[in-house]
Amino acid sequence: MLASIYQRFDLFPYLILKPNHMFLGIGDANGDLTYFLETTMIGNVRLDALATAEEKWEASKANFKNAMAVAKEEFDEVKSRVDAGDPYYAVIDLKEARKTIPSINYGSVRTDSKGKVMLVR
C-alpha cells in the first residue's frame, strides 16, 4: 500500500523480494534506489506508554528511522544475491511493472445512466 502512495506522489517505488518476505525501496528520478523501508516495523512502538505528544513524536520518528536502517541492511543482502543471479531474490521497479500490469485502482469505476459499469481513465 505504501508503494502505491509513493507512486501516486511521483516517487519511484520498488518492491525488494527475498524468500518469504518483501519490503519497500524508493528510488530517485534517475532510478537509483535511495531509501529503503521495512514496513513490518512501522508502528512497532508503544505510544500509549508515553506521556507527551513530543515523546510520542520522537518515538515514532526513531521507529521509522530504525525501519529504514534495517531495510538498508536487508537490501545489501538482497543486492548481492540478485547480482549473483539468485532467482529467489529480486528488485521490482513498480513504474516498469505498471506498464504491463495496471494497479487495482487503475482509473475510476463509474456507472452510466443504464447501470452499465465503465472504467474512466
Major sheet summary line: 4 strands, antiparallel
By DSSP (H or I, 4+ residues per run), the number of helices equals 3
Helical residue percent band:
25-40%
Number of strands: 6
Low-confidence stretches are none
Number of structurally distinct domains: 1
Mean pLDDT: 83
State the end-to-end CA separation. Answer: 20 Å
Which class do the helix and strand fractions yield?
alpha+beta
As a percent range, the share of strand residues is 25-35%
Strand order of the largest sheet: 3-2-1-4
Helix and strand element order: HEEEHEHEE
Overall 3D form: flat
Q: Taking Cα atoms only, what radius of gyration do you get, to the nearest Å?
A: 19 Å
Task: Please provide a written account of the structure.
- With 121 residues, the chain is an alpha+beta fold.
- It has one domain.
- Helix content is 35%, strand content 26%.
- The chain has helices spanning 2-8, 53-83, 94-97; strands at 12-18, 21-27, 33-37, 90-93, 108-111, 117-120.
- The strands form 2 sheets. A 4-stranded antiparallel sheet has the order 3-2-1-4. Strands 5-6 form a two-stranded antiparallel sheet.
- A hairpin with a 2-residue loop joins strand 1 and strand 2 (21-27).
